[in-house]
Amino acid sequence: MTAMDTYMPSGPLTVADLEVMPDDGRRYELIDGMLFVSPAPGLRHQKMVAQMIVRLESACPDDLHVLPAPFAVQTANDNEVQPDVLVARNEDLTEKNLPVAPLLAVEVLSPSTTLYDLNTKKAAYQRMGVQSYWVVDPLDPRLTVFELAEAGEYELVADVKGDDAYDAERPFPVRVAPADLLGRLNQSR
């Protein structure tokens, strides 16, 4: 197995097929019936996820929720993704999953998932109607922000590096500086 495996069965898989996948620390996602498997993330990735949650949660309005992976977004029978971080309306969430597009999906890049996050997953989020898609690079601290335009396609609205900050308006006002997302790791390396 490679670090990021793609499996194409003779027919498309469904979300029911995901329930029989092993609990082995990998992330199993389904896009248009195709299975994508990625390994457990590393230290910098997890630190950035944790810090992103702290920043988003501190600014989050009461009618919205900030959730980390694994939490399933299942908008169709052949689609289940698990953003590293998502923001959703309270009324849209179930105990088991989010059956509609989140307001915000955040992916922190890993060496094994970079192409997947920047292409396949970005296209899937766009088709789902995810209003804001943020991509964070932990190796060269960077935040790239895409927002859904009226034509239904993502537009690049911000690309900030290091200590530069992004002042988001969607899904709510919050300020994020990529280097800060590394927390103490930024000071020790």
From TrEMBL:
Which InterPro entries does the entry mention?
Nuclease_put_TT1808, Restrct_endonuc-II-like, Uma2
Keyword flag Zinc-finger: no
User: Which Pfam family is one of those matched by this entry?
Assistant: Uma2
MF terms per GO, please?
endonuclease activity
* Putative restriction endonuclease domain span: 17-173
Coiled-coil residues are none
- Key words, A-Z: Endonuclease, Hydrolase, Nuclease
- Asked if 4Fe-4S is a keyword of the record, the answer is no
Tell me which PANTHER family the record gives: SLL1072 PROTEIN, SLR1083 PROTEIN
What is the name of the protein in this document? Uma2 family endonuclease
Taxonomic source organism: Kutzneria kofuensis
